[in-house]
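It is worth pausing here to work through a concrete case rather than discussing structure prediction in the abstract. The textbook approach is simple: state the sequence, then state the predicted structure, then interpret. We follow exactly that order.
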Amino acid sequence: GGGGGGKGSYRGSSPTFPGVGAPPFEGITSVRLKLSQGATLERQAFLAELALSNAQEEMTDLRVRIVARDGSGESRPTHFTITPTVPTELPDLTPGGGEVRQQWTIVPAYLEIREPTSYTVRAALDLTVGGMTYTLVSLPEEIVVQPQPEVHVEYFVPKYVRADEPVLLGVRAENRGYGTARNLRIESAYPEIVSQAGRPVGFQMLGTFEGGALQRGDRLLELGEIGAGEVVTGGWMMSFSYHGRFTELGVRCEHLDYRGMALSNLLYCEGGENVFENDLQHLNADECPDVSTCD
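Step two, the predicted structure:
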């Protein structure tokens, strides 16, 4: 998972549109919008479980290590992030006492593999019995790590805005990794006007734009699966009360930990000033179907 925010400046000058004259307008209106969003993406993980019971003698100082090895038998501790952290201390086990059980979540790091790759995972249990220290090692379990996605999210807005007509605050998601990105979702809070000068500008959040259709009233953008090398687009439909021109779009991203684990990043967002100057302009505004002919 990850989080991000966007902010835009809306300046109502006297823009021109193909076949549309300059709108009547007095003065200059400038509006700054703040948009808070959170993006999530499924990733592969494995669940390991260890259960201890029926102790014949008291077992103390129980500590468990999870050991992952590649196909050549080499230990690969940096290839996975494990929670809870290892070594993991467990309660003492006594004759006639209850069962001791522990689970671990094992998440592959970003390994840059291009095909499914096998690893073996074992649990190594250190314990003390009668003052003597022993190590017990479980049988190996095979896991298969899939190639991972690397999704780059780019935001875009139109250069021009017509009053009371839908405007797309767009998202372009490109998977530059070797694995499929699954269940990509971006949830948006309602935009907030943080400052404005001149004539007040009102706006509405109409819904999301997914699969070429407006999902009215929805703020959760569900982009679904993105195969390796594929690109999907979508966004949020808005409308403003005046003609105008977007002058800026800033995007900030922050990658959040999972249960205290600092995971490798699979999701990136990119943007900055003049995002509307990119090759996505023809998807959004100016009635320009061929970007090569746009000014």
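Step three, interpretation. The radius of gyration is 27 Å. Residues 1-28, 278-295 have pLDDT under 50 and may be disordered.
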